[in-house]
Amino acid sequence: MRVVIIGAGEVGTSIASNLSSDHDVVVIENDEERAEQLKFEFDVLAIAGDGTSMAVQEEANVGEADMFIACTDNDRTNLVACGTAKTLGDPFTIARVKSIEYLRTWDRKHGAFGADHVVCSDLLTAENIVRVIGLPTAIDLDLFVGGTVHMAEFEIVEGSPVAGQTVAEADRFDSLTFAGLFCGDELVIPDGETRIEEGNRAVVIGSPESVRAFGTDIAPDDAAERADDVVIAGGTEIGYHTARLLEEQSTKPRLIEANESRARTLAEDLPNTVVMQHDATDTDFLSREHVDESDVLIAALNSDERNLLIAVLAKRLGVSRVIAVVDNTEYVTLFKEIGIDVAINPRDVTAEDITRFSFENVAENLAVLENDQAEVLELQLEADSMMVGKTIMALDEELDGRFVIGAITREGALITPRGNTELQAGDKIVVFVETSFADELMAAV
Q1: Domain boundaries 2-115, corresponding CATH code
Q2: Domain formed by 148-223, architecture
Q3: How far apart (Å, rounded) are the C-alpha atoms in residues 194 and 165?
Q4: Each residue of 163-212: pLDDT tens digit?
Q5: What is the reported pTM?
């Protein structure tokens, strides 16, 4: 497949990295030095120029492209680039935007702006935050097969009842598969005798009910209850959408916004949110408002440095769980190292959402875990798939790679995979796989 990417920032670079090994990738980047650097980093054709220019797109042979991805940091640039691409050919066009207004326009008429798909970074990030809030100790949650299957990654925190137990002892749910375990930088495909320790990150796949029950079961007693008191620091678009989505779940969050005009607008738009006009870094204010008693605090300002400060202050005050929006990918590890529970990078969330369109319907959904060490794929088995008619045990012996089939749906019903489960044509399977083996696994479908 020929893919043209506009913009070699963090999103574009991530997408190019994911696609370059299996696809013919062209990257158009306005910065000549960055374009030249890409040629040495990845197996791509890099062109220096304006991605909205018809001449530059013709140089990139956009007319012959199968997919066109505009993912610069400028919404209008991305939309204009998609419109230009549609005049040269008929690629599947994807535009990254931050403004929800552009997404609303596109939702009213798909194909607006020349975009076949529009990805709103702020809304995606807010949805990710709200999903994570719903599960104690969860650091990631993705939905598969239309929500029938959930994949969640949990941190085994101090005081967790499962710390020190084996997988067999911890996995007490019928419709759940214990798919992977991250021990520091090491990926472990666990068996029943694998021991779970504090600090490990466990990946489970199963029904929404079983994943939620597992999350509650492994959380310390003081963290296992529903998060009802949620504080959002920052009335940014991400902060606003997070509050709006929480309101839809009957949660009444508190939101802190320093700007008086913005706070007034938020108070009008969020009827079930308590909007407080104040500086979220004011420790005395946080104490007066009993922020330390909240279940979750979300740092959602437009500055990584201020989000870090707020997150640290919240931890020092005693907030049980802190989620921070981190715009710079390189800072994500720093936030985690200093004890912030969850760090969510909007660029990573956006790149993952866009990348899933590149698998030409082989993989219908995709989640990337732990700095691309592992992936979770949703695959549909056709009649000619080499997997059809074989048991999971037989596939484990036949395929020389590390993977776990976490869930199977068959004619709408969820099946918990076991060693003697035989795969059938039409099955949808959700697979946890080491990234280095993902392409080979998909080739076997």
Answers
A1: 3.40.50.720
A2: 2-Layer Sandwich (3.30)
A3: 8
A4: 999 999 988 888 999 999 999 889 999 999 999 999 999 999 999 999 98
A5: 0.84
